[in-house]
Amino acid sequence: MIKFYKMKLKPLVEDLRWRGMLQDIMPGTEEQLSKEMTTAYIGFDPTSDSLHIGSLVPIILLVHLERAGHKPVALVGGATGMIGDPSGKSDERNLLDDEALAKNVAGIKRVLSRFLDFDGKEENAPMLVNNYDWMKNISFIEFARDVGKRITVNYMMAKDSVKKRFSGEDGAAGMSFTEFTYQLIQGYDFYHLYKTIGCKLQMGGSDQWGNITTGTELVRRMTPGEDAKVYAMTCPLITKADGGKFGKSEGGNIWLDTDKTSAYKFYQFWLNTSDEDAKKYIKIFTFLDRETIEELIKKHEEAPHLRLLQKKLAEEVTTFVHNKEAFEVAQKASSILFSDSFKSDIASLDEETFLDVFEGVPQAELKKEELAKGVDMIAALAAKTNFLSSNGEARRALQSNAVAVNKEKVNENYSLTEADLINGKYIILNKGKKNTYIIKAI
RNA sequence: GGGAAGAUACUCAAGCGGCCAACGAGGACAGACUGUAAAUCUGUUGGUUUUUACCUUCGCAGGUUCGAAUCCUGCUCUUCCCA
């Protein structure tokens, strides 16, 4: 049996290192992973009812793990979410109420199961757990005696996430006992998973290193005489070359859910990656092998204006997170919206394809009678459609030459008429290059 | 429990009786340039309005004043010092 797994295991750590997905790794981890099928887990915080691309890296890590022949466990923090992780925060976190939390946990489970088949039958099939399930039955006294006793406050205080909050530097606010407890609870998760399913490795973002090592320490101390060996590994936090926050785009987060971020927007986000970031991201966010990626980077450097790298990156990630069809539609929409022969391209689409392509683009309806009379541009942008939030904003956009009707720039005096309708039915508005809105005549 | 400081638009941060929709910085959005990139330069960044003007906003609630983000009183919250 052991031999069987040995044959199936792939060199995971080496690959992750090349991909730039390795920040810290505890000594012995690599040996453990090449020795036997290893169960490893990553925690997901239920701070929202869906996941955005910030969580894509841990998800991808779990998938890598599975593909390398190990057993990935996704832990949803139903219990830890009630406490709040102080890592990387300078202020005390607001607590979520039970209802919101339950909703978030369900949402995250739903998203995670798109990437990992939790119903799989294989030995190394992914597992989904919720730490609320075991934490809810533990009394405070029990916890204080069995867990709290094992770790000194001195040890806990030495963690950066805690130290920072005690130091008062950078305007950091104090820290409640609640948040202080967080690392113990997370550590207990590791112990619980070690005991119940033999989980030996915890992974996460590098901001989790402190919490994770508390876990490995706790496992060791809670199992005297067992010679328990558990490991830790983290990946770097994703950054942008220009120092901006990763994962934000015009108007907010990029989510992994179509109803929060359309596949078109999702595709566009990746397509707009800068050259420098694209080289980094393609290793992290795609499963392409080393040879393919190095070839792509070489080609890209020869002709950066073709943006081969961005296109491939966008294709791979959109296909992974959504699916092939969604990618194709997004690509088609992109190529039409940014083409030079926009008008003829768009006119050639039948209605079904048209709606398909523009699914996810904000739409509004306008009566044909109104169009017959002519609709003032300001009203068309704001009052009639709510594309922009106020007349003032619409006016500013028009004055700064940002608005286009069917890709032709217009000014304040323009008014929409039936002559602007494409196929007698639609008008396409743009604010800037990248914001598209559709008016449907009814 | 005692004392001190503070709360200003997305964030940081000026302003300390009229000239304040509120300096400045960052961010964001847009324009030019380009490759739907980066860098750079320019503009915008409470609402109604063509402009003027008006309305709402400076923790919350009252008050003083012709007039308050600016003064007074109470409340809430935060930080710091002493016990």
Please provide a written account of the structure.
By secondary structure, this protein is of the alpha/beta class. The protein has three domains: 2-235, 3-Layer(aba) Sandwich (Rossmann fold); 248-338, Tyrosyl-Transfer RNA Synthetase (Orthogonal Bundle); 357-441, RNA-binding S4 domain (Structural Genomics Hypothetical 15.5 Kd Protein In mrcA-pckA Intergenic Region, Chain A), CATH 3.10.290.10. Helices cover 46% and strands 14% of the residues. The chain is built from 21 helices and 15 strands. The strands form four sheets. Strands 1-6-5-2-3-4 form a six-stranded mixed β-sheet, sandwiched between helices. Strands 9-15-14-11-12 form a five-stranded mixed β-sheet. Strands 7-8 form a two-stranded antiparallel ribbon. Strand 5 (199-205), helix 11 (209-222) and strand 6 (231-235) form a beta-alpha-beta unit. Helix 10 (177-197) crosses helix 11 (209-222), helix 13 (275-285) packs parallel to helix 15 and helix 15 crosses helix 16 (324-337). The chain starts with a helix and ends with a strand. The relative contact order is 0.09. Residues 1-7 have low confidence and may be disordered.
Concise overview:
The chain is of the alpha/beta class.
Total separate domains: 3
Q: Please summarize the sheet with the most strands.
A: 6 strands, mixed
CATH architecture of the largest domain: 3-Layer(aba) Sandwich
Give the distance, in angstroms, between the N- and C-terminal Cα atoms. 67 Å
Overall geometric form: elongated
Helical run tally: 21
Helix content: 40-55%
The helix/strand class is alpha/beta
CATH class categorisation of the largest domain: Alpha Beta
Rg estimate, integer Å? 26 Å
What topology, given as strand order, has the largest sheet? 1-6-5-2-3-4
β-strand amount: 5-15%
Calculate the mean pLDDT score and round it.
86
Compute the number of strand runs.
Answer: 15
Query: Residue ranges: pLDDT <50 for 5 or more in a row?
Result: 1-7
CATH superfamily of the largest domain: HUPs
**CATH topology descriptor of the largest domain:** Rossmann fold
